Amino acid sequence: MMKKASHRSSASGTEPADGPGGQPRRPRILLFGSQITTGGAQRVLLDQAGWFHDRGYPVQAVFYYDKDGLADDWRARYPFPISVLSAYRQRDLLRNALGLLKAMSRLGQLIRSFRPDVLESFTHDANLLGMITAGAAGVPVRIATHHGQFARLGRAVKALHRWTVNSRLTTACVCVSERARAQALAEGIRAEKITVIANGVRPVERDSLARERTRAALGVGPGETLILTVGRLVPEKAQEALIDAVGLLGDGGSDVKAMIAGEGPCRAALRERIAAQGLTDRCVLLGNRNDVGALLNAADIFVLSSRTEGMPLALMEAMSLGLPAIGSDLEGIRALVGSGGGRLVPSGDAAELSRALTALLADPGAAAEMGRRGADRIRNEFSLDASLRKYAALFTAYLK
Q1: Which listed residue, of 104, 109, 174, 398, carries a Cα 20 to 30 Å from 325's Cα?
Q2: Residue ranges of domains in the chain, CATH in brackets
């Protein structure tokens, strides 16, 4: 059992003051995710790690397993340590059970070596493994997070997650939106455990050279409109609605190309849907990309047709650049779009999505004004710095 670290409040009341020479000591932070992949929760984790690292906090990122084989690339790209605990194989219960025990053991060893003051976990699976292991290892502050509902979790897992978050194993649960808070309450998470901190992003800056090069590489002509969506190819993201909407544009969409960046289990079904509608020259699956900023610069319209969302980073980044955006009428998306910063359509309604696209294509001036309003909203209200200052204050409050 690791001894609980000793903390003293600084004169400013914002950080523990037990560093060399009486200087405030930055809390040591371990950020734990379930899998290395291109999802939104992973982006939040990496953005947090980078922000804390840049400000002198000792920080490590740890993942249960490397789903998409990106660990080496991430280690080369990011300045903080990134560890992978184990492996996971579909439909291999015995190996996965042994891998889970190995992961818990390795996480415990890493905690004893790194001695974090705070462990924050991302998504339900990571909350379970992270809170239980960190609690047993004596990590002083243990923060679970809730990024949205996970429909595929079994009843037993949901019950265990509810018990874990409500128990003394978990110090607090951060929800990334009011919608995520409502979902957490519906799952049985106690209200006094919950704090809402909205996600934030670094604004994407305009880059005319990146736009020109990326459009050329993607085969998008000067007179063509590029519609972009970014997200894992999973049922919750409902990219099929965008494919169907492009098909419904008919001849009015002859100069329109829709591109879907991301990877996941729905790839084959989406590819078949594109082929069945004869849209192979107008709808393209890009796979995993590490140049999302360049893709956004290349795009003219951003679409997010999800069935469920917490606080979607991809939409926030697109809006920060000034792209006119169309999203599903969900609370998390609605909170970002606000008044005039984008257009909302019923989730999964390809006909309404197609009509919204037609309206934007027909009125470039209105589309540009929508983009300007969206950029102002994201840059003023949803910056990464503002969001992570709230996390830092939360950690400090529990360490006093």
Answers
A1: 174
A2: 20-200+384-399 (3.40.50.2000), 208-381 (3.40.50.2000)
